[in-house]
Amino acid sequence: MVGIHTLFVLILFIPNNFAKTILVEELTKWTLRNKTSYKCRTMAEPFFRVNCHPIFMKGANYVPAHTLPELSADADAVAHLLKSANEANMNMIRVWGGGLYESDTFYNLADFYGLLVWQDLAFSQAAYPLANDFVASVCVETVQNAQRLSYHPSLALIVTNNEIELFLSSNKSDFGENATRMDSDYKALFIETLIQELNVISRKDFSPRPDPMASTPSLGVQESGKNLSNNPQSLQVMCTFGTTKMDSALKRIQTLCFGIRLL
Asked: Would you say the pTM of this structure is higher than 0.90?
């Protein structure tokens, strides 16, 4: 059920026999996450699970709250927008990859209002370079933000980019002889590098959340020839690949079973 949810505060102390008790850490949110499975009940019907129940997602894309980045984290503006989403009975917010990594206030309020977050990394509809310095920089950026956000019960899914697969597939004729190289560069940066960096929040030995997804939208890398899909937003293809195998990330992104208090 959509609404305001109780958030639990966990404070840990370690007794010190030689001095006073030490406050080690304070966690503002605490939740349990369980393993999940993917089901596609009918054609073109991927879905999320929350607390082992399939949920119909009602939500919106979230773009920065202000055109000036330094003002986009204004607490009152963010609170108004997420409160409005809650009052409109939304249960998911997608943070658009063409914008910013949002403030801690944003994710704290998403936790409070029971809004799941579909989080794109900040890459959108462009060809990105493979220069060593650039790759090293965005790897650090990715890990820092993933670690910052990973403890929030609202974080349902993290995706490496916004619509770059769609951008590549829709413009092949314009790219001409560069199209193959651009596909290869895309896979090298986002699938072979950044998805691997995101494993920092996809540990298999402790309460795993769904694996990262390659792009919004995406069908994963097809097994035959390792080519990107020609139609990455086709849900029918996604559910009827037949002998074509989706990557393990895509198989698991539609379901999750968080201990978030939505039901």
From this structure: no
- Torsion, Cα of 96, 99, 100, 105 (10° steps): -60
In this structure, are residues 187 and 226 in contact, taking their beta carbons and an 8 Å threshold?
Answer: yes
Q: Which of 87, 141, 163, 223 is catalytic?
A: 163
| Both structure tokens of 88 | 């409109």
- What CA–CA distance (Å, rounded) separates 72 from 107? 14
* SS3 at position 48: strand
Please indicate whether residue 197 is annotated as part of the active site.
no
CA distance 141 to 122: 10
**CA-based nearest residue to 226, from 211, 214, 234, 210:** 214
Q: What does the block give as tokens for 128?
A: 């990105």
- What is the tens place of the pLDDT at every residue in 110-143? 999 999 999 999 999 999 999 999 999 999 999 9
Find out whether 222 and 187 touch, Cβ atoms under 8 Å: no
Contact in structure between 260 and 154 (CB atoms under 8 Å): yes
Contact 92, 117 (CB under 8 A): yes
* Alpha-carbon separation of residue 3 from 8, 79, 232, 246, 261 (angstroms): 16, 14, 33, 35, 9
Which domains occur in the chain, in start order? 10-258 (3.20.20.80)
Q: Which of 118, 116, 112 is nearest to 3 (CA)?
A: 112
- Integer Cα distance of 248 and 221 in angstroms: 10
